[in-house]
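Researcher: Here's the sequence for the chain we discussed earlier.
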Amino acid sequence: MDWDAHRTRMFCGIPGFGVQDQAIQESQGDIVDRALEHLGSSDTAIIQVRRRLMSAARALRDRGTPAPGRDPESFHVRSASVVLPPGASWVEGALPRVMAKPGRQLTLV
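Model: Thanks. This is the structure I predict for it:
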């Protein structure tokens, strides 16, 4: 933790989004009961991830279905931002940026 950066330049003091995410994930401590939490519409991604995790756990328990994410090709997809002309297909327009290719330089914005 860079306390000087925290005071003067950055809110969290940890350089880089990836390292910030890692710090938060690793510092959360014990697993807590989320039964009493009240999620709203801005928490849609959290709700969907939890549903998928529970579905995968039940499928493993009930049918022995392997957990998702075992296909290495799925790790080649990343988030990206792209500006497209009006009427353009966002799937076709974003595909080159969201598919990581071995040996291809990552574009940082």
